[in-house]
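name: query_chain
kind: protein
chains: 1
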Amino acid sequence: MKISLPFQKKYVFDRLGRRDPSVIIGSGVGEDAGVVTVDSMYLVSHTDPITEAKSQIGKIAVQVSSNDVAVKGARPEWSLVTILLPHLEEELLDRITAEIDATSKRLGISIIGGHTEVTSSVNAPIVSISTFGIVKGSLLDVKRIRPGQVIVMVNEAGIEGTAVIALDHSSMLSGLADVVESARRFVDDLSVAEDALIASKLGAVSAHDPTEGGVIAGLLEMALSSRTLFHVDAEKIAIRKETQVICQRLGIDPLKLLSSGALLLTAEPDDAGRVLDAFRGRARVIGRVEEGEGLLLQGRGYSGFVSEIPQDEIERLVR
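structure:
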């Protein structure tokens, strides 16, 4: 679970070591990755631990970390991998590293180092991956969000959370065997790296990978980072049938559910059409950027401002 935004502001965002003018984008609300200038290029980096999933964590970790580099407009190219195990189990280590290897090959990422150890400080395996890429042109940047832009969402809400529930908590879903089996395959749909790179070339201004707290958290983070108002029609946010069925059974909100696999974008109105056309029905305009600050959400039971980044439904479900 991420610490609250007030605690991040108080204890994290202002404690960043030596100030370096080559750091273009550093730690902050809604920032998926850090960006440093190197000659005439930008080096983009991100690190992310997987703590809410138990099954296929190697596959999940690679996709989630690479997404956060791609949403700056950089192709993910290199990774450092840390694996922490509560005990040495050869079959488990074999499975995790095989998943990391296969997924990295699929996404074109080279693993250049890392660390693997057994420690009593964890009670379940944790995989943390730092991924790097280079941008030679312009960056996708949430600080470029301005009133008048439209908000575009690619793919559906809650894909990652649906997969995690189906893989790790299927005992809660008795009588839904077919739905669970289908939802488990969502774990292969978490990468939005190619989508982000395509959107960058077509004129998108900013991009964000919604993870903990779901699409609602992602939208609010973008709004707070850019100090704008996001006015969103929740009815236009697509949700897969399996996600709807599982969330209804468990009484949870798909808009607050782990959402790697979705991509949030902003674009000028004249460019949005090209973005929508490129994704052939997988993308839709869900709102607009206005003067103000925060998230105004309407539809699907919402009818006002969302003022706090929500706790992810996975955390509420398993605690």
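note: The chain has two domains: 5-135, 142-318.
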